[in-house]
Specification:
Elements: E1 5-11, E2 24-38, E3 49-52, E4 58-60, E5 69-71, E6 74-78, E7 86-99, E8 104-123, E9 130-153, E10 156-166, E11 168-173, E12 180-184, E13 191-195, E14 203-206, E15 209-212, H1 216-221, H2 223-231, E16 242-244, E17 259-260, E18 268-278, E19 281-291, E20 294-297, H3 298-301, H4 313-317, E21 348-350, E22 353-367, E23 370-385, E24 399-400, E25 409-416
Parallel strand pairs: 20-24
Antiparallel strand pairs: 1-2, 2-7, 3-6, 4-5, 7-8, 8-9, 9-10, 9-11, 10-18, 12-13, 13-14, 14-17, 15-16, 18-19, 19-22, 20-21, 22-23, 23-25
Length: about 425
C-alpha cells in the first residue's frame, strides 16, 4: 500500500520576539498527519470451502425400501473475500514546553485515530456461518499529557513525573448491518457484546439489575415475574432472586430491555513515578492505573453450568438470606438458578485499579575504592481495586474466566563496578 505522512513543528522560543523572555526554555507547537497500514489480519480469508457428504445430504422417498434415493447436498463453510490491509489515518496536535531552567517539562497532545477497512467476521443473515472481510471503521480520540519536575535542595535531589491518556472509542460504520453480536463463548448470545454505530466497540449487552425480590408479595405484584412463573412452574422466581429493570415499562422482559453495560476499554490510563536521593541513599517508586473500564466477571456467571466452582468471598459473604438482608446479591439457591445468571449488570464490575508497579531502595558506598550498590526491589507489591476477581488486568474483551493473578516479586541484590 501507499502510506504517506507529514509532520510540522514550530519552536516559538527561538523567535526574536521571545528573546527577552526568561520563563520558557522550550516552547514548541507541532502537528502531524499520516496513514499506516495494518497487516495484522487473517491471511487465509481469500478462499471458499464447500462441504459435502452424508451430513449435508438428504433421502427422498422411503428410507426403509429400495425406493429411497440419496441426493447429495452441499453447504458453504467458508466464503471467498478480498481482504485488504486495514488503514489507520491519524492526526495529532501537540505542545512541548520546558520552563524554570528546565525543572518543569511537559507535553500536551490531542490525537484522532480512525481505522478504515476494519477487518472482522460478521454474521450472515439466516445462517450460522460468518464471513471475514473489511466491513467498517472505528475512531479513537483523546488527550495525552505528560509532566515532569526535577530539583535539588542541598544533598537532596528529587524528580516527579506523571502521565495520563484519555480514550474516546466510537464505532463509525459496520456496513449495512444494524449491529454485530460477539460475546462469550465466541459469537454467543449467552453473554453477548455488541458493535453498534456511534457506540464504543464490543460493549457488554444485558439487563440492568434493579434489586432483589424480598418477598412473595413483590413477585406477585411484578408482571415480569408473574409471567415467568406461569411459564416456568417447575423453576419459579423466588424471594432472593434478582429483579431486572423494565426499561420501556411494557411489563415484559425482552430484547428492548437490554442496554449498554459498559466495555473493556479504559477511558483513562495514567501513571506516576517518583525518584529521590539523599547522600548515599536512593529511592524510586512507579505507579500505574486505569479507570473507566468494565470487566465481565464470568467466574460468578458460570456457576449455573459449574456449580462446584469456587466463588469469591464477597459473593458468598453477601448472599441474600432473608427479607432485608441485601438488595444486591441473590440467595444461595438463586446463585445457580438460570433466571439470575442471564447477562446483566450484576456480573459487570468496574475494572479500575491503581497498582504500585515497582519500588526500589538503594545504598551506595565504596569498598576499598570499589563502587558498590546494594538494593532491595519490590515488583508489583500492591494493587488497589474494587474488582472481586483475582486481578483486574484482564485481556481480550474483558471476560474474566479465572484469569491467573500477576505475581508480586521481592528481590535483593548488589552491583559492584571495577
Amino acid at each position: 500500500g501507499y502510506f504517506p505522512s507529514v509532520g510540522l513543528g514550530w519552536v516559538i522560543n527561538r523567535e526574536k520576539f521571545m528573546e527577552d523572555q526568561s520563563l520558557f526554555d522550550l516552547l514548541k507547537i507541532r502537528g502531524s498527519w499520516g496513514l499506516l497500514g495494518n497487516d495484522g489480519i487473517q491471511p487465509n480469508a481469500g478462499y471458499g470451502i464447500v462441504n459435502s457428504g452424508n451430513n449435508f445430504s438428504g433421502i427422498f422417498g422411503s428410507t426403509g425400501s429400495a425406493n429411497g434415493v440419496r441426493e447429495p447436498g452441499y453447504r458453504v463453510g467458508r466464503f471467498f473475500t478480498q481482504v485488504r490491509w486495514e488503514v489507520v489515518e491519524e492526526w495529532d496536535a501537540g505542545l512541548d514546553f520546558a520552563l524554570l531552567n528546565n525543572r518543569l517539562e511537559g507535553t500536551v497532545d490531542y490525537y484522532y485515530r480512525q481505522t478504515n477497512d476494519l477487518a472482522f467476521s460478521r454474521p450472515i443473515p439466516f445462517m450460522w456461518d460468518r464471513v471475514y472481510g473489511n466491513w467498517g471503521s472505528v475512531a479513537n480520540s483523546g488527550w495525552e499529557v505528560s509532566l515532569n519536575w526535577k530539583d535539588q535542595v542541598g544533598q537532596f535531589a528529587y524528580k516527579l513525573g506523571a502521565n495520563a491518556t484519555t480514550l474516546n472509542n466510537k464505532v463509525l460504520d459496520i456496513g449495512a448491518l444494524a449491529n454485530i453480536q460477539n460475546g462469550f463463548p465466541e459469537w454467543s448470545a449467552e453473554f453477548p457484546t455488541r458493535i453498534v454505530p456511534n457506540e464504543p466497540i464490543n460493549y457488554y449487552y444485558g439487563y440492568e439489575v434493579a434489586g432483589v425480590y424480598q418477598n412473595q408479595a413483590e413477585i406477585a405484584a411484578d408482571p415480569i415475574a408473574s409471567a415467568y412463573n406461569e411459564a416456568n412452574p417447575g423453576a419459579p422466581i423466588q424471594p432472593g432472586y434478582l429483579r431486572y429493570k423494565d426499561q420501556n415499562s411494557n411489563g415484559e422482559l425482552d430484547e428492548a430491555d437490554r442496554i449498554n453495560l459498559g466495555n473493556y476499554l479504559p477511558k483513562l490510563t495514567y501513571g506516576f513515578n517518583i525518584g529521590m536521593s539523599y547522600q548515599k541513599f536512593d529511592l524510586s517508586v512507579a505507579l500505574q492505573g486505569v479507570a473507566g473500564n468494565k470487566i465481565h466477571n464470568l467466574n460468578r456467571a458460570m456457576r449455573r453450568k459449574y456449580p462446584q466452582m469456587n466463588a469469591d468471598a464477597a459473593f458468598m459473604d453477601n448472599l441474600w438470606t432473608a427479607e432485608g438482608s441485601t438488595n444486591e446479591y441473590p440467595s444461595a439457591q438463586g446463585s445457580v438458578a438460570s433466571w439470575n445468571l442471564q447477562a446483566s449488570s450484576f456480573f459487570v464490575e468496574s475494572g479500575a485499579y491503581l497498582r504500585i508497579q515497582n519500588i526500589q531502595l538503594g545504598y551506595n558506598f565504596n569498598l576499598n575504592t570499589i563502587p558498590v550498590r546494594v538494593f532491595a526491589t519490590a515488583d508489583r507489591p500492591a494493587i488497589f481495586t474494587r474488582y472481586n476477581g483475582f486481578t483486574p488486568e484482564v485481556s481480550g474483551m474483558g471476560f474474566d474466566t479465572n484469569v491467573y493473578p500477576i505475581a508480586s516479586t521481592y528481590s535483593f541484590g548488589f552491583n559492584v563496578t571495577f
